[in-house]
Structure formats: structure tokens, C-alpha cells
Amino acid sequence: MRQAGAGRGLALGTLRTIRDIWARRELLGYLVRRELKSRYKDSALGFVWSVIRPLVMLLVYYVALGKFLGASRGIDGFAIFIYSGLTLWTLFSEIVTAGTGSIVNNSGLIKKVYLPREIFPIASVGSALFNFAIQFGILIAATVVLSGFPTTSAWWYFPVSLLVIVVWATALALMLSAWNVYLRDVGYLVEVFIMVFFWASPIVYAWSYARDAFDEMGAHWLNEVFLANPVTVAVIGFQQAIWAPGAAAAQVGRPAAEVNTAQFAHPDELMLRLLVALVVGVLVLWIGQRVFARLQANFAQEL
């Protein structure tokens, strides 16, 4: 006989959950495919919509902010700059939003059979990564055509930035999906959270604009608070890797202090900030899994 449910103990419980998920990796793959198919069910264009939506967002922001408000005059390669930020942000928002509702949306299956419930938020991560791969391919093609493919050492920012986003988004998805079972208002709070975090991260504006605004206010400490947001440093790192002007400014031996124009500026010790965000994110992910494991005992009754 084997007891169903989350294992006890901080370390042993986590290891048991990982083993259970790995043993059901085929089921996880099926759930990812099911989520992708259900998202575009009965749609004539299917997965093409995963391309159309970010392109429409790019067009809206490029016209509204770039042309009408003149942001493109201060940032070279504004289209690539903004699309790189939107690509990474879409990955984060999809994981958090879909992950939050993953347990409630699969209530029928959860009430019938036992399986590691973490599979459902993780399936949301898989489907979001699939959409990200499509959008990233378009981003690379656009970069090559419009501004030239960056070949500097700034490419090291790409994997670290991506890991930061995936780790933090997965941690939030685990905790929020569990809380959403007991308090359905969590889903509405996530919508507000996503909206606020979008504008609190340098996605459609250069990071240096926020830095200069804080300096004018005389509140230099707000800049450190701004950079403490893991999404902020991940977006900056991703833009430095993909966006050609930013990649040129991030070359080894050319610190941000030597760059005079705002469009090229990036925070000092950006890689160190990314690594710190990644380490803290792994810790938060582990805490999120233990919170999830603690709350999942009554999922079936609450659903």
C-alpha cells in the first residue's frame, strides 16, 4: 500500500513530488497538448493566433507609443526593443494566468483520481513555452531583417533571463493555483497584478527613463526597488541579448557608465542581478511547492 498525497518533510516531500511527476511525464505531455488544442479549438487559424496576438500588440504599442508619443525617436530599433520585451512578458503572464486557474479548470479529473496536482500548473508552463518558441522565432527573424543579428557576449543574458522568468512564474503559478481553490477572488487579483506589473517593468519603455525619473524625484532608492523586481531585470537582460543596440552596449569591457545615450543604458552588474534573482526564484519555487503540497489535501472537497 502506498499513501496518496503529498509527502511529509521539506526535502523528502519535494523529492517524492518530483519522482511522482517524472513517473507521469507522459500524462504531463498529454495535458500540455490538450491545453494547446483546447485553446484554439474550433478555430480556423489555430496556432496562428499565437502569432497574431503579439504582433497586434506590437503594432498598437509601436504606433501609440513609438509614433504618437515619440518614443521611437529616443530608442534605436524600437520595434525590436518593444517586441523582445513583449515576447518575454507574454511568457510570464501566460504561465501565471493559466497556472492560477489550472486546478479549478481540471476539477473533474482531480475529484476522480489521484495524481500529483502540480502537473496541472506545470502543464500551463509547457503550453506557454510552446507559444514562446513560436514568438521567439518571429523575433529572431525580425531582428535579422531589421537590425542585424547581435553576435556579442550579451547573448549570455538570454538563457539566464529566460530561466528567471520561468522559475518565478512557475512559483507564482503553484501558489496562486492552490489559493484560487479556496478563494476564487485570486483569479481577479491576478488580472490586476498582471496589469500593474506590465507597466512596472521596462517593456514598452527604456529602463533608463525610470532611472532618470527617480533621480529627478530625488528618490534614488526607488531605482533599487524597481530593479529588485525579477521581471524587470529579466526583461532588461533579454532586451540586451536580442536588441542589437543594447547588445553592443553590453559588450565585455564597455560598462554602462561609458554609454552616453539613454537608449543603450543598462544597470550595473546586470548579470549579477540576474543570478541573484534566479537563486532567490529557485528558493521561492521550492517554498511555493511546499505551500501547494500543504493546501492540496482538501482540493477535492473544496472543488
Give the topology.
Blueprint lengths: L9 H14 L1 H15 L9 H20 L9 H23 L1 H4 L1 H4 L8 H28 L10 H26 L2 H15 L7 H11 L3 H8 L1 H13 L1 H6 L20 H26 L3 H4 L1
Quick synopsis:
The protein has 303 residues and is mainly alpha-helical.
Structure in words:
With 303 residues, the chain is an all-alpha fold. It has one domain. 72% of the residues lie in helices and 0% in strands. Helix 4 packs parallel to helix 8. The relative contact order is 0.14. About 5% of the residues have low confidence.
Order of helices and strands: HHHHHHHHHHHHHHH
Strand composition percent: under 5%
Largest sheet: none
> Given the C-alpha coordinates, what overall shape results?
globular
Q: Tally the helices: what do you get?
A: 15
**Alpha carbon gap, first and last residue:** 26 Å
Q: What is the number of strand segments?
A: 0
Helix content: over 70%
Rounded average pLDDT = 80
**Would you identify the regions where 5 or more consecutive residues have pLDDT less than 50?**
249-263
Structural class: mainly alpha
Whole-number total of structural domains? 1
- What is Rg? 21 Å
Features:
mainly alpha; 15 helices; globular
